[in-house]
Amino acid sequence: GLRVAQEAYPIDALSDEMHGVVGSMLFYTRRYDEPIAHFQSRPSTPSLRTLVGLGRSCAAAGRLDQAIAALTAAVAQSDHDPSVEAELGRTYAQGGQTDRARRMLADLEDRRRSAPGYVAPQDLAYIHVALKEHDQALALLEQAFQEHASRLLFLNVDPRVDALRELPVAGNDGAVPCVDESPRHLSGRVHGLAFDDDESGA
Question: Are strands 169-171 and 174-176 parallel, antiparallel or unpaired?
């Protein structure tokens, strides 16, 4: 969890991986000023992990111009890694730039069809969530589970799917209270784990 990551961080404070882990744990707490400050603490030579974390946190905080700038730099640094491009596309959608978001989504879908497994379905799902296309997002998350996507492990604490937790869904015997159980269920099934509400990024 966050406490463990923060305690371990001083042991190897120069580690980009540890820096990114702490930033991600802070992001999952939804106190977005904290991960933004954390990721900005290395301003001189931001790594790819730092740029993505900063962009994601700024987007969640509504600082969309900063988010797009960081993620655009991340896309270039990553040589157009699809997961990074998807994060930028999701941010465009969140900011109302739906034409740009849909162009990026279409390109990623084409790349997935031509090279299955190269573009992860959950990355496409995040764009659909931001576009308010929730059925498509849930179908892609289920597909990600079928493909044993390890990054679903933290889906139950990921703010990017919060919109799905608020939706009513139909079950076999009528209405299910909310879709919160669906992404949580998917994340738990990946490794047969169950998560509690207080496990922010454990």
Answer: antiparallel
Are 41 and 22 in contact by the 8 Å Cβ rule? The answer is no
CA 26 to chain centre: 13
Q: What is the DSSP letter of 158?
A: -
**Mean of the per-residue pLDDT values of the chain:** 80
Structure token pair of residue 17: 């991986």
- Gap between the Cα atoms of 109 and 74, Å rounded: 20
Rounded Cα distance, 160 and 80, in Å: 21
Residue 70 CB partners (closer than 8 Å, separation 6+): 46, 51, 52, 54, 55, 58
Say how far apart CA 190 and CA 17 lie, in whole Å: 23
Whether pLDDT at 189 is above 80? no
E strands of 30-144, at which residues? none
| Residue 16 CA: distances (Å) to CA of 20, 47, 71 | 6, 7, 17
Length of the chain: 202
Residue with the two structure tokens 């969140």: 94
Instruction: Label residue 156 by pLDDT band (50, 70, 90).
Output: confident
Confidence of residue 3 (pLDDT cuts 50, 70, 90): low
Model-level pTM?
Answer: 0.79
Q: How far apart are CA 174 and CA 129, in angstroms?
A: 24
Q: Calculate the alpha carbon distances from 46 to 12, 28, 76, 91 in Å.
A: 17, 21, 13, 20
